[in-house]
Structure formats: C-alpha cells, structure tokens
Amino acid sequence: MAPSRLASMAPLALGPRLRIWPPVVLAPMAGVTNYPYRKICCEFGAGLCVSEMVSSRGILDSHRGTWRLVHFGSEESPRSIQIFGNDARAMGEAARRLRDELGVDHIDVNFGCPVPKLTRKGMGAAALCDAVNSRRVVEAVVRASEPVPVTIKTRVGMDEDRITFLEAGRIAEESGCAWIALHGRTARQKYGGRARWDRICELKEAVSIPVLGNGDIFRAEDVPEKIDESGVDGVVIGRGCLGNPWLFRDLAALFAGDPVPPPPSRSEVVDVARRHFLLLREHFAGSPREAILRFRKLGCWYASGFGGAAEIRRQLQRIESAGDLEAIFEQWLAEPAPEG
C-alpha cells in the first residue's frame, strides 16, 4: 500500500506570521464554538479554533447580542472569527472593527450556512448565487482586514442546479484569501446524504491556494483516505467533534505519525463534560442560567455511547442546577460496564 500524503503534509500558512499545525480546524458552529469549547478543542490538539459566526450588521450596530458572541479568552491565540453578510461596505467595516478593537488574527467569511433565515436574504450559502456581489464582499473584507488574513468557508452550492464552489474558489484566489474550505454538500442537503469529497478534489485541482475539506469526518481513521483522494491541505471538523473533542487528539496523533489512542474511558468523558459545564458557567457569569440552558443540548452529545442514552437526554433537558447535572454525571459513572 502506498504511504498516505498525511506523512508529508506541511503546516497551513495563515498570512505571513501564523502556521497552523496540525492542519485541523474546528468549524464555526452557532451555539457551540464559544470560548469554552474552543479552549477544550485547542487543548485536545485542534490546530485552529474558529468562533461562532457573527453578523457584520450586528457588529456595526453594536448589537449587544452580537458583541456577546465576540468573546476571546485572555490567553487565546490565534483569535479567529467568522462573519456573515452580503453588503460589501458593512462586511469590510465589520472586519476593520474586529481587527482594530479586538485584535483578531484571522477572519473567515461565511458563504456556507444553509439556514433559511440567512439564505432567504442572500447570505450564507446563497451569497454566491450573486458572484459579482460576493467578489465585492470578499475584496472589501481582505482590503479592510490587512494585514489580518482572510479565508472563505463555503458549500458546493445552493442545490444541484446552482453549483457555486468553483466560482468561490476563483474569488478566494483572485482576492488574496489565505485558503478556502469546502463542505462537500449543497445547502439544500443540509447534513443529509454523503459529503462529496470528489467535488472537494475538483476544487483543489482548480485553484492554487490551499483547500480544506469538510464533511463526514467522525473518526480520525477516515482522514488519511479523504486526504489522499482529494489532495486537500487540511480538514475542517464540525459535527464529528460534538461531545467528542478526543477526535482532535486522535487527529493530532495521526499527523504526528503516532497510532490513534484508545477511546476515552467513562470517567474521562465525565471529567471533560463537567469541565465544559464549569467553563460555560464562568463564561456566562453574568447570566448563570445561560450555562444550564446551553448544557441541556451540549450534554446530550457527551451522553452518546452511554447505556440508556435516550433517558439521559430526557434528564439533561430538565436540569435546573449544577446539582442536577452532577447527579447525572454520578449516574453515568455508576452505570455497569458493558459485557464483552
């Protein structure tokens, strides 16, 4: 068997100053990739952790909810953020403010969100249906952000009749973006079906800038084959890491040439879930109930693999306090080990 490209891959260049290694990026996910989870994923080995996407208009209007999302830890580096919008002036000015007021190190442009709330307004994955305006947007962000590097994250297109990823690649390359990341599905598919890594390969062959692949990475062992078939320069991890930051540990091991570690023990899962909640509580110190509400969803992902997961999910949806959550953790630890 021929050796995998994995062994010869280089760090991702993010502008003249930053090198991302391993070339594994935590995807921006609304309600998930706030500072607590970015901190955890970074500690587990993610090369770059991107914030939740934020509205360029919300930044310019100083919308309190938007600025609450734009929070970095004092030690967090690099500071990476994703913005969305379809107005070139607003996107450029928002990028400038993020550079000057928050000292961000990297700005990603969202051309991939499939949520109808955005696509109906020509944003997210729908933005590229107007290629002329999309080019204006990207050029404005690159110009306003300088010297902060800019990247694009996109999808194959809105649907099979509106395929836009190759045009996105041309825009990214000609506008001076550091890389482009492609999720191998259309917006209409959302997360159904299988990601088309052959289309990611097609994009890689069409542009000279680095291409990152995204879609259906749930196990580290799947990555060498995806890299070999597509030729990508790195990968973006989304749903595969939900409740499973160990995926970054496993990928870091592969890129270092080491074997994939064994799965985490039950106590390790509980320890990380507990720490995630404590970080959320600290992050939302001004609104203690917010941490509880967030963990009602996040905890369900950590529960995968435990016996009686459906009942555990029901219990998590009803937690009202840290004490309720601790009782669930104790229940997880007390569960009889599966017979093998």
Short description:
The chain is built from 14 helices and eleven strands.
Question: Spans of 5+ residues with little confidence (pLDDT < 50)?
Answer: none
Strand proportion, as a percent range, falls in 15-25%
Query: Termini separation (Å)?
Result: 33 Å
The count of strands amounts to 11
As for the CATH topology of the largest domain, it is TIM Barrel
* Count of helical stretches: 14
Overall pLDDT score: 93
Percent of residues in helices = 40-55%
When the domains are counted, the total is 2
What strand line-up does the widest sheet have? 3-4-5-6-7-9-10-11
> Would you tell me the structural class of the helices and strands?
alpha/beta
CATH superfamily of the largest domain: Aldolase class I
The gross shape turns out to be globular
CATH architecture of the largest domain: Alpha-Beta Barrel
| Run of helices and strands | EEEHEHHEHEHHEEHEHEHEHHHHH
